[in-house]
Amino acid sequence: MLQINPNLQPADLQTKLAHFWELSGQKIRHIEQHYDTAKGSPVFTVQGRYTTRGWTEWTQGFQFGSAILQFDATGDEAFLTSGRQKTLEVMAPHVSHIGVHDHGFNNVSTYGNLLRLMLEGKTSFNEWEKNFYELALKISGAVQASRWTTIQNGGGFIHSFNGAHSLFVDTIRSCRALVVSHRLGHVFQAENDVKINLLQRAFQHIQATAQFSVFYGEGRDSYDTWGRTAHESVFNVKDGNFRCPNSQQGYTGFTTWTRGLAWAMCGFAEQLEFLKTLSDSDLPASYNRQDLELQMLRAACATCDFFIENTPTDGVCYWDTGAPNLHRLDHYLDRPADPFNDHEPVDSTASAIGLQGLLRLGQYLMAMPSRTIDWGNGRQATAQELGQQYWQAGLTVLNRLLEEPYLSTDAAHQGLLLHSIYHHPNGWDYVPAGSRIPYGESSMWGDYHIREAALYVQRIIEQQPYYAFYGCVKE
After folding, report:
1. Distance of CA 403 to the CA centre of its chain
2. Which has the closest alpha carbon to 207: 184, 228, 233, 188?
3. Are 240 and 141 a contacting pair, CB within 8 Å?
4. How far is Cα 470 from Cα 199, in angstroms, rounded to an integer?
């Protein structure tokens, strides 16, 4: 179980953050100078060098988005120039990509961050450039919303690349694309000019994820535990009924793939933050603010609780909480994670993504009016007490990831966050000679999300505007 440091403050991380951004800049430059773009988008490292892995094109926005975040953190104009130019040259196919569920990853990380920086005054204002970013974000949200499956009781979800039957827990973070498109005033139209409310579609997907991807200890199946998540939820597309949990990258549909858990932690927390910015008149007519907030808050708290209780003491996850050889690591939850063990790999990227959910949920709860949070399962605390717990948990995990062996200090290694796992069941990850498990490598999503978490905390330390995805839209 994660051992939360109750005394850690954001300012305590300043020295580590300065070192982190120095290393981060070196990694970005190294990739720009040495990666062969003819291979396609860089996905993960093999022996310290970025390579590609064909599945879907979901990581290129993280590459260019990393340069944009580097500029945000350091003010180094060279990274802004690179990130902006590559977004212009390369990212257009991602805006119109109808075959993926990853628009929030690719496009909000690039066009969204560039627009946000302009609105914050960190870059010079240019009307046409602003319009260009806005148009990309408008179309991206609509394209993402077109991957739609209708389910029971009039609900629905953005289906994964697996097909119309497939709800991925990851996709909650792509709801950002729909939300931004809507707030930019885009009108999404279908056959016979039927207007589709993008905000309503985002909320429907979020609700489907909360209902079917997250478990609440209510006896849904034999493995129903408070906060457990399923990577994939499978539906009968004929009648819209839920059929079963499944997993593509985890061990089984009845265990918890920790990166999927982390997507839920982060996704629910940031959508709660966004909901707070909406007036009642902004909500679709069928939505009650209190009911929607309660559903999202329950899912956010449940997943964050599961992370805290099922992660080793230092906050670094193993790749799946039901991985078949974890039992060989006696009492593995009672000590720091061991990325060099002989039985199961860790996935530091799950921790990098999940810690942002902890921090954001902590901030959200601590700002709430005094109230008691009681989910009816023996977990009762004031919003402020819960918020403080999650906030300190997030700082604890970030503090760990900003140091070795997770922070890559080797100048020859192109990755920033070490001990990342992509697809363990498929055997895609590099296994060093003499080892039984993969370790020591990085990924684009891991490197981007540790940068995002570091930037989030740094901006709080420096009392800059709160970093949120909807910062690219004027309120």
Report:
1. 21
2. 233
3. no
4. 13
Using CB atoms within 10 A of its CB, is residue 128 exposed (0-12), middle (13-18) or buried (19+)? exposed
Handedness of CA 343, 346, 347, 350 (dihedral sign): positive
| Inter-CA distances, 415 with 51, 63, 267, 338, Å | 11, 11, 25, 19
Residue 167 bridge partners (DSSP): 233
DSSP letters along 359-416, please?
HHHHHHHHTSPS-EEE-SSS-EEEHHHHHHHHHHHHHHHHHHHTSTTTB---TT---S
Q: Per DSSP, what are the bridge partners of residue 214?
A: 229
Burial 194-228 (b: 16+ CB within 10 A, else e): eeebbbbbbbbbbbbbbbbbbbbeeeeeeeeebbb
Q: What is the pLDDT of residues 268-327, one digit of tens each?
A: 999 999 999 999 999 998 899 999 999 999 999 999 999 999 999 999 999 999 999 999
Amino acid occupying residue 78: A
Residue 287 corresponds to which tokens in the numbers above? Answer: 């939505």
Residue 71 zone, left/alpha/beta (φ > 0; ψ -120 to 50; rest): alpha
Helix 77-90, helix 60-74: angle, nearest 10: 160
Q: Which domains does the chain have, with CATH numbers?
A: 10-472 (1.50.10.10)
Residues 6+ apart with CB under 8 A from 137: 107, 108, 111, 112, 115, 177, 180, 181, 184, 472
- 0.90 exceeded by pTM: yes
3-state class of 153 per DSSP?
A: helix
The C-alpha atoms of residue 402 and residue 25 are separated, in whole angstroms, by: 15
183/169 Cα distance (integer angstroms): 24
DSSP, res 317: P
| Token output for 223 | 């493995």
Beta-carbon neighbour count of residue 56 at 10 Å? 13
